[in-house]
Amino acid sequence: MARNEIRLKIKLRSTGGTGYTYITRKNRRNDPDRMVLRKYDPILRKHVDFREDR
């Protein structure tokens, strides 16, 4: 299988309402659900949840 079929590029969008995004990859087989990570939002200057936004 090709590399891009299993590991998708996803956008993680801030739940703080700033519109700030991180771009990362995830394994579709191991994590079929939407990903939620707690990361730093430089606009709010604090850590908030970032949800997957394809």
Explain what this protein looks like in three dimensions.
This protein is mainly beta and 54 residues long. It has a single domain, classed as Ribosomal protein L33 (Rubrerythrin, domain 2), CATH 2.20.28.120. It is 7% helix and 54% strand. The chain has one helix and four strands. It has one helix spanning 3-6, and strands spanning 7-14, 21-27, 36-41, 46-53. The protein has a four-stranded antiparallel β-sheet. A hairpin with a 4-residue loop joins strand 3 (36-41) and strand 4. The longest helix has 4 residues, at 3-6. The chain is elongated and about 40 Å long. It starts with a helix and ends with a strand. The mean pLDDT is 92. It comes from Nocardia jiangxiensis. This is Large ribosomal subunit protein bL33. Belongs to the bacterial ribosomal protein bL33 family. Keywords: Ribonucleoprotein, Ribosomal protein.
